[in-house]
Design a protein that fits this description.
451 residues; elongated; mainly alpha
């Protein structure tokens, strides 16, 4: 299945199928993660459910539209260059189906049982699985097929951010309890009565912050997935950023600078591929460009330069030059048209408006031994919004679900009420199982479909 003609009927049908899968995944991501933003305002009766999810959906939409693309390409670069951009222009349907099918299935499975789960973990696990499957297909060493440095960087962010949410939200709740004496902050909801004015406003504000930051981070993930789809299936049209067309004339001179750096520092046995790509790029002419081949070569060289910039064997000056050339080459292949941003925002925003009830109940009543109070919800969401927004603008994908869940657990510990160990064990089990399950499923799918 790896080889069939671009623009054929089958390619077009595959494009439509993959587009449907990525849109459905982002829709599911929206309603799976909605509860993280709306749980507090709905549970405390600060907003009616319909109003809360519509407002949250709108803020998710705005977050996607105003965000960058650093998270998007931080994720897709987990794939090896030959999968990320096939040099012969063949569509990458097995990769796309393995990615979207695996992530979507696991998201739906955990949502059905009301377990807060990370869409980020689903996508990352599937991407790693595809890289593993590609290594098995080509009988390559895993060390040469998977960018482990990028994986560890992302996994560190995913592991540390919930701990920061736990400690930060617990500390904020502790401070609130000693500085703000209003009893309305510390009472669980009473019937259908909303909290008093300023408390209601605080909860709406924190809901807005989490929704916007969720869009700015998770929305970028779908932007990256959509770009994988259209580039993998229609490389001649979307392989290169049209806005950087004048830069193509400078690729040859940058490749000439990169070649001796790549030659001097072997990076996990990939020097030959990167050097061959640099040699081809050094003869690039703006009026004789094969988009798919140019994209593939650029990714090989960028991957090589990234390894040089991180190499301890390289001098400080060489690492700096490698990093600079890599930054100058990236914009030619790392971009997102306005309509891709809009599509991502629409799918995430619409998904936010449905499917929230199961996980709202979990966050409101099952994380701790007591029901959620306004102060606890506001503390968890305020800290969560700050962490998610910071990560979104530094290019690191984090889990909204795990940050908010950990934040609520932190406030329960801070209040002295304790946590529901049974529910936290279920959440932890989903957290532990997500990566190995999605890696195994995606690797198997890619190996079977790509064989």
């Amino acid at each position: 299945m790896l080889h069939f003609a671009p623009y054929s009927l089958f390619s077009i049908l595959a494009l439509l199928a993959c587009f449907l899968l990525v849109c459905v995944f982002e829709f599911v991501n929206g309603f799976h993660d909605t509860a993280n933003a709306v749980a507090t305002v709905i549970y405390t009766n600060s907003l009616k459910p319909r109003t809360a999810v519509v407002w949250s959906g709108l803020m998710n939409f705005v977050g996607v539209v105003l965000s960058g693309i650093s998270v998007a390409y931080g994720l897709v670069e987990l794939l090896p260059a030959d999968v990320l951009s096939p040099p012969n222009g063949d569509p990458a349907v097995p990769m796309l189906i393995s990615l979207f099918g695996t992530a979507l299935a696991w998201n739906l499975f955990t949502w059905w049982f009301g377990i807060p789960n990370s869409s980020s973990h689903c996508v990352i696990g599937a991407l790693i699985g595809i890289a593993v499957g590609d290594a098995l297909l080509h009988t390559r060493d895993l060390g040469n097929s998977v960018d482990w440095s990028q994986i560890w960087k992302i996994l560190r962010a995913l592991a540390i951010s919930p701990l920061l949410g736990l400690v930060g939200a617990g500390a904020l709740y502790f401070a609130l309890k000693h500085l703000v004496r209003d009893p309305a902050l510390y009472q669980p909801p009473q019937g259908d009565a909303p909290p008093r004015g300023w408390v209601k406003g605080l909860l709406i504000l924190t809901c807005t912050g989490v929704s916007f930051s969720h869009g700015s981070n998770d929305g970028q993930k779908s932007i990256g997935l959509i770009m994988l789809t259209i580039i993998g299936l229609l490389p001649a049209t979307f392989a290169l950023n049209p806005a950087t067309a004048p830069d193509i004339a400078h690729i040859a001179e940058r490749a000439a600078i990169a070649a001796p750096l790549l030659d001097a520092y072997d990076h996990d046995g990939l020097r030959a591929e990167a050097l061959a790509s640099a040699a081809r790029l050094s003869h690039t002419q703006a009026d004789h460009v094969v988009a798919s081949q140019l994209r593939a070569d650029l990714y090989e060289v960028v991957a090589g330069l990234k390894a040089v910039s991180a190499s301890r064997a390289a001098s400080g000056a060489d690492r700096a030059v490698a990093a600079r050339i890599g930054r100058e080459l990236r914009p030619t292949v790392e971009y997102a048209p306005w309509w891709v941003r809009l599509l991502s925002a629409l799918c995430l925003g619409i998904g936010t408006m449905v499917g929230y009830r199961r996980i709202v109940h979990t966050l409101g009543e099952k994380i701790g031994n007591t029901h959620l109070t306004p102060a606890q919800g506001a503390s968890a969401e305020l800290v969560g919004a700050g962490l998610i927004a910071t990560a979104g603008y530094t290019g690191l994908p984090v889990s909204t679900t795990h940050i908010i869940t950990a934040g609520i657990a932190g406030t329960m510990l801070g209040s002295g009420s304790g946590i529901n160990r049974g529910m936290l064990m279920k959440i932890a089990l989903a957290w532990i199982c997500t990566l190995p399950v999605t890696i195994a499923v995606a690797a198997s799918l890619f190996y079977v479909l790509g064989g």
